[in-house]
Amino acid sequence: MDEEVIKEHLKTKGKYLYHREGQELEFKEQFNLAGLANYFKDFAAFANNRGGYLIFGVKDSPRTLVGLSNSSLSQFNKIDPEIITGYILEIFSADILWEQAIIDLGRKKYGVFRVFKAHTKPIIAKKDEGRDNTIKNGEIYYRYGGRTQKIQYAELENIINDRVEKNNRQWLDLMAKIGKAGPQNAAILDTERALIEKDQKKILVLDDKLTRKLKFIKEGQFVEKKGATALKLVGDIVPVDRVEVVKKIKEDLIKEYPLSATELASEVKRRLPKISRNDIWQAIKENELKYNKDYSVFNFRNKRQQDAYESTGLIPSSVPSIYNYKSVDFLVNVLGTTK
């Protein structure tokens, strides 16, 4: 998060705030976990427009800088990005990318949520949520000026038209690539089954470097030298840079790690009803379950997030962990013996 951008949003003229709320900016006086539904509504509204910032620690009427109270700061610090992301995925139709930070300014602290523009619009509420159904099933929220409200016809029509145009561009781009390669040379890459299909053939794709290291034998023949590296040839073997491919689907980790954080907690509570969710989150943290592939993996939304993690070791706040059923057994065993 760019602190200079936040400090610009908190710039004052005299003792009053210089900037007003707008399509990309919303101020709140204090943060309260009980108000999450209201904040999530703003999340969806920002994501459906151009993205934006939700900043806590600014008093309304007149707009002055007061900073977070000790209680609000404590609650803001308790936020687990993975849990929040899990709740958002349960409430809305698509992922909302966001990040959080605490900014120090003039001996006061301010909580900040940054929400990114959604890649796939519109973000639609899938269920009722919050007191008096702050979020309602089937509604679409949009950021207008300095307010969040249900989307109007003109904006929804623009989102639908943009989506149709984007889909058409993708098809045209795909057809252009197939035309350039020639239909006789095009193939479909199915990453889940690790196969490339061309006509009725199933092709194994290998990197050129690996290709040079292997000795291939036809079925029914034998390796002359004992222990020599060999590969049984069933289909066609083609170097990867010689095949025009189209990615069909990404590898499906959910088959191996089917539980979200909230589903994991529900499974543990089903077997240990007296255990609180806070106990479960604490046990996950103390035992570093998120970083143990025996129990959990990070569900990266795109390659950019994965590359950033591999180079920095830092996990973006919007990346959730997903868990397998071994993690349930582990937590039940740990919590059952300590509580």
What report would you give on this structure?
- The two termini are 39 Å apart.
- This protein folds into three domains: 3-151, Methyltransferase, Cobalt-precorrin-4 Transmethylase, Domain 2 (2-Layer Sandwich); 183-247, no CATH class; 253-338, no CATH class.
- By secondary structure, the chain is an alpha/beta fold.
- Helix 7 packs across helix 10 (325-338).
- The strands form seven sheets. It has a five-stranded mixed β-sheet.
- Strand 3 (25-28), helix 2 (36-48) and strand 4 form a beta-alpha-beta unit.
- It is 35% helix and 23% strand.
- It is built from ten helices and 19 strands.
Comma- or semicolon-separated keywords:
10 helices, 339 residues, alpha/beta, Methyltransferase, Cobalt-precorrin-4 Transmethylase, Domain 2, single chain, 4-stranded mixed β-sheet, 5-stranded mixed β-sheet, globular, 3 domains
Average pLDDT taken over every residue = 82
Indicate the percent of residues in helices. Answer: 25-40%
CATH architectural arrangement of the largest domain: 2-Layer Sandwich
Which homologous superfamily in CATH is the superfamily of the largest domain?
Answer: Schlafen, AAA domain
| Count of alpha/pi helices | 10
Proportion of residues in extended strands = 15-25%
CATH topology of the largest domain: Methyltransferase, Cobalt-precorrin-4 Transmethylase, Domain 2
Number of domains: 3
Helical/strand content category: alpha/beta
Characterize the largest beta sheet: strand count, sense, and whether it forms a barrel: 5 strands, mixed
Read across the widest sheet, the strand sequence of neighbours is 16-13-12-11-17
Radius of gyration: 26 Å
